[in-house]
Specification:
This protein has helices at 17-30, 53-59, 87-92, 154-164, 168-177; strands spanning 5-10, 35-39, 64-68, 73-77, 99-103, 112-116, 132-137, 148-150, 166-167. It is of the alpha/beta class and 178 residues long. A hairpin with a 4-residue loop joins strand 3 and strand 4 (73-77). Helix 1 crosses helix 4. The two termini are 22 Å apart. 27% of the residues are buried. The model has no long low-confidence stretch (mean pLDDT 90).
Length: 178
């Protein structure tokens, strides 16, 4: 059994999910938590660049490339169109222990903290998503039915995230049922 716990950050584009993660991760690390992140992208992306050996290998037709050094390693895997990895597949690739913060995958059945910014002009997600376990918002939601903390109160957000994250086994079982 892994002692990895999972929680996501979900919200509309422009709500500040990535900005919040950049502020939240150091707070969690300072509390002694090992943090992994898993980010969903809605478009093609590259982590290597033209001229780099890994890029040349992929352009030449390699379906997988691993780049390794004394400080880090990365694996790049090409997939066929429409063969996107599922959230359970990606969660299983994470090292056991600590906390996995998932950005995106907002329609999946894992516990999520909604990041809400009123200026977006979009309806909140927590009204229709039973997997939202808390809200970080710049406006109050007295009828939310889940804890609501200020979007700028990163310490309170860190506490809420740690309190509401679920064991990866529980999350995987729910994701595979849905």
């Amino acid at each position: 059994m892994s002692d990895l716990r999972v929680i996501g950050l979900a919200g509309w584009s422009g709500a500040g999910k990535t900005t919040l993660l950049a502020r939240l991760i150091p707070v969690l690390v300072a509390r002694g938590v090992r943090v992994a992140t898993l980010k969903h992208a809605h478009h093609a992306f590259d982590i290597d660049h033209p001229g780099k050996d890994s890029f040349v290998h992929r352009q030449a037709g390699a379906s997988e490339v691993i780049v390794s050094s004394a400080r880090r390693w990365a694996q790049i895997r090409e997939v066929d169109e429409g063969a996107e990895a599922t959230l359970p597949e990606l969660l299983r690739r994470l090292t056991p222990g600590g906390l996995a913060l998932v950005e995106g995958f907002k329609r999946e059945a894992h516990p999520k903290l909604e990041v809400f910014r009123a200026a977006n002009g979009r309806a909140p997600l927590h009204d229709h998503d039973p997997h939202i376990v808390g809200v970080a918002s710049d406006v109050p939601f007295p009828q939310a039915g889940v804890p609501v903390v200020g979007l700028d109160d990163v310490e309170a957000i860190a506490s809420l995230v740690l309190e509401r994250a679920e064991a990866v086994e529980t999350v995987l079982a729910r994701l595979e049922r849905s």
